[in-house]
Amino acid sequence: GTALVLLEAQAASGFITDPLKNEKLSVDEAVSAGLVGSEIHEKLLSAERAVTGYTDPYTKGQISLFEAMNQGLILKSHGIRLLEAQVATGGIVDPVHSHRLPVEVAYKRGYFDQEMNRILSDPSDDTKGFFDPN
């Protein structure tokens, strides 16, 4: 469970890191290289879409993680965990423009609502940490 959470956080930040070769790989590349097992491939692809964007089932266009949460394509609790991983690794990823933004800038641009801004900006929220596998 801890390993999956850490791998999802890596995928949600844009890549899986090969600790031996110090290479950054996509989820597909990590599975092909045997770095992660194929049994978690789909879960990691879902997390990776937090960076690459989700496909709207109606318009077939790219939508953000927050929009996917609002449409019920991804569970809110899972989406929050992926957004928190992005915040912890440099900021909210804009899947359309492929860059990172601070939480307050993403909120001002309308990437998510006031409630999500409060959740992501709350410094006293202890869920923003990740387990140390050691």
Task: List the defining traits of the structure above.
134 residues, alpha+beta, 7 helices
* SSE pattern: HEEHHEEHHEEHH
> What best-fitting shape do the alpha-carbon axes yield?
globular
Separation, N- and C-terminal Cα atoms: 14 Å
Low-pLDDT segments: none
Mean pLDDT across the residues is 85
Note the total helix count: 7
Radius of gyration, rounded?
A: 15 Å
What share of residues are in beta strands?
Answer: 5-15%
Largest sheet: 2 strands, antiparallel
Q: Order of strands across the widest beta sheet?
A: 1-2
Secondary structure: number of strands: 6
Structure class: alpha+beta
> Helical amount among residues, as a percent range?
40-55%
Summarize the structure in words.
With 134 residues, the protein is of the alpha+beta class. The chain has helices spanning 2-12, 27-32, 41-52, 65-70, 76-88, 103-108, 114-121, and strands spanning 16-18, 23-25, 54-55, 62-63, 92-94, 99-101. It has a two-stranded antiparallel sheet. The protein has a two-stranded antiparallel ribbon with strand order 3-4. Strand 3 (54-55) and strand 4 form a beta hairpin. Keywords: Phosphoprotein, Repeat. This is Plectin. InterPro entries: Plakin, Plakin_repeat_sf, Plectin_repeat. GO terms for molecular function: keratin filament binding; structural molecule activity.
